[in-house]
């Protein structure tokens, strides 16, 4: 990708790859960069509220799981917001952990619901509209998209 991805005077890009990057792939990353902090704030606020303001909480595993999820979401946000090689790797790791935890905790919440309690990953993110299930998968698809990998310097750029 060239650093100047502006269309020519007649509204056309130099290549279909540049048009795809400018119109679809890059904006999708910015949507993820906005949606992930929203999810982090909602799960983090829930965990903080339960830890410090709810006197009736006596079982803290769900609270800690939600706080860990919020940390994963914030970590993944770095890679969506800052296009650097190291943030790509950090986001891939965070989204991998998040996907794994969603599947493990989501499955376990059906097997032993009392042990898991009400956490963000319970029933694969049911309380959060299943965003914890599909959002990291969308994020991983975006991060491994060839044009995204080129933009981050993970993969060599193809000539147009």
Structure write-up:
With 160 residues, the chain is mainly α. It starts with 15 loop residues before the first helix and ends in a 9-residue tail after the last helix. The protein is elongated and about 60 Å long. It is built from 6 helices and no strands. Helices cover 68% and strands 0% of the residues. The longest helix is centred in the first third of the chain and has 37 residues, at 16-52.
Computed Rg: 19 Å
| Percentage of residues in helical conformation | 55-70%
How many angstroms separate the termini?
Answer: 8 Å
Number of helices: 6
Quote the average pLDDT.
Answer: 85
User: Any low-confidence stretches, pLDDT <50, length ≥5?
Assistant: none
Strand content of the residues, in percent? under 5%
Main β-sheet, in a few words?
none
Compressed to H and E, one letter per element, the order equals HHHHHH
**Helix- and strand-based class?**
mainly alpha
